[in-house]
């Protein structure tokens, strides 16, 4: 089994799902490629408030760093940087573009990658990655999008959307159900109201 995990660094729900999937990746030794997705690009509109435009601008500048790292370094570097930025933003509640020099240092990544924050040439690559995920899963989706390949077929699905990160045993149980749903094309959607608050 191989996997691709498409995510937007700013989405707290995708962050929770990524922490679940990291447990699966590590426990079951599943080769996983961490891919970029931009909700700002997918849902682009000229009718956004100034506050929303500023939020999307900041998130895109951080995604450019991740894209540059993906272009030049390894998938492990992308994964560790996503985790470090996510912890700073989602867990420590810092702004998405804060402490980036320290974060890169902690990940063993050269600070030169900060120069890419205003490199608009990278936006097309981020858009292509986003559109690739949409093509695999459909347009009426968000993040995460997880693509599984069992050697016989490759299928993609949006989700899971979870409020809290389950423990290892529960994570493994959820994984078995998730695999079945992902590969079963007859299942399109399962959804209910979010009764449990986001655990962040």
Describe the structure.
This protein is of the alpha+beta class. The chain has one domain: Glutaredoxin, CATH 3.40.30.10. The protein is built from 7 helices and 4 strands, in the order βαβαααααββα. It has helices at 12-28, 39-42, 50-72, 75-91, 100-106, 123-137, 168-183, and strands at residues 2-7, 32-36, 145-149, 154-158. The protein has a 4-stranded mixed β-sheet with strand order 2-1-3-4, sandwiched between helices. Helix 1 crosses helix 7 (168-183) and helix 3 packs antiparallel against helix 4. It is globular. The mean pLDDT is 94.
Q: Which key terms come to mind for this protein?
A:
alpha+beta; 200 residues; four-stranded mixed beta sheet; Glutaredoxin
Present the secondary structure layout.
Blueprint: E1 2-7, H1 12-28, E2 32-36, H2 39-42, H3 50-72, H4 75-91, H5 100-106, H6 123-137, E3 145-149, E4 154-158, H7 168-183
Parallel strand pairs: 1-2
Antiparallel strand pairs: 1-3, 3-4
Compact description:
The chain is an alpha+beta fold and 200 residues long. 50% of the residues lie in helices and 10% in strands.
Across the major sheet, the strand order is 2-1-3-4
Radius of gyration, rounded?
17 Å
In CATH, the homologous superfamily goes by the name Glutaredoxin
Oligomer: single chain
User: How is the CATH topology named?
Assistant: Glutaredoxin
Report the total helices. 7
Mean pLDDT: 94
* Low-pLDDT segments, ≥5 res: none
């Amino acid at each position: 089994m191989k996997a691709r995990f498409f995510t937007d660094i700013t989405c707290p729900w995708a962050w929770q799902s990524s922490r679940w999937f990291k447990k699966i990746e590590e426990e079951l030794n599943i080769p996983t490629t961490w891919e970029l997705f931009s909700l700002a690009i997918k849902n682009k509109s000229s009718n956004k408030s100034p506050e929303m435009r500023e939020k999307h601008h900041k998130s895109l500048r951080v995604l450019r760093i991740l894209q540059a790292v993906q272009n030049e370094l390894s998938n492990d570097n992308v994964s560790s940087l996503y985790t470090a930025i996510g912890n700073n933003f989602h867990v420590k509640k810092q702004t998405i573009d804060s402490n980036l020099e320290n974060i890169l240092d902690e990940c063993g990544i050269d600070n030169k990658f900060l120069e890419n924050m205003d490199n608009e040439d990278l936006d097309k690559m981020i858009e292509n990655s986003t559109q690739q995920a949409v093509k695999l899963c459909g347009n009426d989706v968000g993040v995460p999008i997880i693509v599984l390949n069992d050697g016989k077929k490759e299928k993609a699905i949006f989700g899971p959307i979870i409020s809290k990160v389950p423990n290892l045993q529960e994570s493994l149980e959820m994984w078995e159900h998730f695999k079945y749903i992902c590969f079963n094309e007859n299942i399109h959607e399962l959804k209910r109201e979010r009764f449990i608050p986001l655990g962040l």
